């Protein structure tokens, strides 16, 4: 009886280890992640408004139809990125993802406290090149440190009613991301 109990506990432990390692390995093994899907249609360092979700072969599955969405596929190898997005009347959010779809920063219109969300995106090495007084002179300048040189910025604007979807689409279409070359 005790031997059978040890076998069952061992099998459960082994099953748990296999399950956990499989779940943790999936993001690395996935070939159709968000970055790969968007690489076919989204230019680098430019904002692309996404079409409304349909049931026929969507670019991004499981998108909420109440939100207008735009993406910026960024590459920081040539310089830092200046990003700006106007806020809508209802709700606007900006989320930053690494190349492997790990969210590392998010901000919404209420946290920004202004009519425009403006920030600078750079790597840790690029941040180290900034003059030491840069943070002091630009106290309201938001600097985000990206853990990777490539990734995605996703802008979402809520349309609380179907009639307000055009306004939400204009909001995300007005978002901008542009590269500022590295200092020589």
Would you mind describing this structure in some detail?
This protein is an alpha+beta fold and 184 residues long. The protein folds into 2 domains: 1-30; 34-181, Immunoglobulin-like (Sandwich), CATH 2.60.40. 30% of the residues lie in helices and 33% in strands. It has helices spanning 2-29, 34-39, 109-112, 124-128, 134-137, 165-173, and strands at 47-49, 67-75, 79-86, 92-98, 103-108, 116-123, 143-146, 150-158, 176-181. The protein has a 5-stranded antiparallel β-sheet with strand order 1-2-8-4-5. A 4-stranded mixed β-sheet has the order 7-6-3-9. The longest helix has 28 residues, at 2-29. 24% of the residues are buried. The mean pLDDT is 86.
List low-confidence stretches: none
State which percent range the strand residues make up.
25-35%
Radius of gyration: 21 Å
Helical content, roughly? Answer: 25-40%
Q: How far apart are the termini? A: 74 Å
Cross-sheet strand order for the largest sheet: 1-2-8-4-5
Gross morphology: globular
SSE blueprint:
Blueprint: H1 2-29, H2 34-39, E1 47-49, E2 67-75, E3 79-86, E4 92-98, E5 103-108, H3 109-112, E6 116-123, H4 124-128, H5 134-137, E7 143-146, E8 150-158, H6 165-173, E9 176-181
Parallel strand pairs: 6-7
Antiparallel strand pairs: 1-2, 2-8, 3-6, 3-9, 4-5, 4-8
